[in-house]
Queue: 2 jobs
Job 1
Amino acid sequence: MSMSSHAIRVLSPAKLNLCLEIKGLRPDGYHELDMLNVGIELCDAVEVSVGGEDIRIECDDPAVPRDRGNLCRQAAEAFFRAFPETRTGLNIKIEKRIPVAGGLGGGSSNAAAVLFALKALTGTEVGGAELIRLGATVGADVPFFLFRSPAWARGIGEELEDGPALPDYTFLVAPQTFGVSTKWAFSQYDLTKHPDNLKCSRNRGMAPAGWKLFNALEPIVAAAHPEVAKTKDVLLDLGAIGALMTGSGPTVFAVFDGRESAEKARDAAARELGRAVLLCRAVQGPLLREVFHNQE
């Protein structure tokens, strides 16, 4: 098998959940979700190159696993199982800017970038829908990053359809100094106390300006980590038109309808919270972007 190129570098964005509703428990043990996801211009960089006899992971963040627990490695293995004739040694380098265990989907985005890169590296004829199905075997958030933004995501996140066009919002993203386990957050959710709220379903029939930001996991995480609620209050007091924890947290984001007001709020929030607050725009359209392609 000959490779069509030697190395590809892909920008791998974070995502925000503008809505995250838990609708029930599936027979497979996963939760049935209804979400409105948007990608943002906070990106890792993932470089995939051919070489060696195994799959080797490098990362500039020590919190990222290098072993078989790494989703990038799992993505590569899934690709090679699906297309065994393409199997080769790989070097995967990850430059992290997305906080780990922050609810921003960084690991899933990185895994999607590997699938995206391997399709191009190997010249494999695989359609978008097939690649999304393959991504779902790696992780529930991986399909979204192989799709487009914004998107409605259902099931465990693998059932995707285009979301409505977003206004020209600016987002402030406030990572915390700690992480939250996704498995823990979902395990704490009591479905008997929260019958189908249908928050996301109601959003679907509304104009973007009328959306109700909603995250079913936020009260659980905020009860265990008061810093989540404090961060929301700070951002709302600084003029945000809405604020919410994303994913299983603990990162909080805020929505502003102008860049100038967002920049002022970012500086004030950073001072009050004592940590970095990031200013981001939404990604509308394809999520993954190739920025380097080295031909053999």
Job 2
Amino acid sequence: MIEIKVPELGESIQEVQILQWLKKEGEFVERDEDLVEVETEKASQVIPSPESGIIMAVNANDGEFAKVGDVIATLEKSDKPAAVAVAAGADSNTANETATVSNGDAIVMPAAERVLVEYKLNADQITATGPGGRLLKEDVLAFVKQNDLQVGGGVPPKSRAIPAPAASEKPAAPAPSVPKVVGDRSEETKPMSMIRRTIAARLVEAQQTAALLTTFNEVNMEPVMSLRSKYKEPFLNKHGVKLGFMSFFAKAAVEALGRFPAINAEIRGNEIVYRSYKDVGIAIGGGKGLVVPVLRNCEKMTFAEIEMAIGAFGAKAKDNKLTPAELEGGTFTISNGGVYGSLLSTPIVNPPQSGILGLHTIQERPIAENGQVVIKPMMYIALTYDHRIVDGREAVMFLKTIKEVMEEPARLFLEV
């Protein structure tokens, strides 16, 4: 028997959450085949099977938590599933080490045995569907659901007819009717995921430890939209990726961070750490929540490199495949709530960073231009900053720099 343990997934990671088992009890798994997907406080990772064989027991179900080094499953080593099934049936001593034999036919897997005891059922009441006649946990749960059983109740007896009252007995007066509540009022409790727990902890930390303040401005997006429309085809043909708005904002942020380095710095104790590099985090909605992969040395990246990196991050986030290394660090963050239709918001700084730029939906609005009222595609932008390290003047000028660069993109190339 081989024990499947939670491996070390990082220096600071002590606990994981079981997202889903990719193989079930009684199933055969090849060596190095994906066995279970787990979630750390930073990202999701897949644990492969160390050997080929049949999964004999699963000790941690989907949604449960396990510490590094915990045994979450046991595997019976084998090259062929059929050979394992025959051997398990022939050698009762070996089978009893990992499973309970019921009625001389079905081999009851440990997880199934626990459910049988919980519901006071017998294995011979249920059809086994696992390899070699194994009774799986899923078989028992399906039987429980089909028969609407309660814990500890066993198989309910057939309903008995209620005898009619004797002729001499007067029927009881009907009880006053109570209005029935219409609609589904069920509740479901699920454990908070590792990523959601981390998000919650960091947001509370930011609110409790930093002096957060938000300043706003608005950007006329017409110049960037015109530039993007003019060059989107040549850009796509040359680089194989679409030209989006995020690369413009990332480059504008790099320019503004260079002018106001305090927003790219962080507080460590009684010291301020200023960085010469700009590692810009891009907030992306992933399969399990908001994640912020980081563009390392964004100041050295081209428009195409930024767009390709963001596209790759988005695909990984959707499949929960981002690695801890891709999420660590970051000196500044950009969050685009506009993709979900947000008109205005106050983003929260990701500690220990000192600033976050919030982008919002583009909306046609009337504005005054050269003494005339015109309709322009406008976007509200917001900068939340840590007032302990960033003064209000710097924050306002930072946001004004973003506005100037976006309304005159040529500034990016002329460095003015």
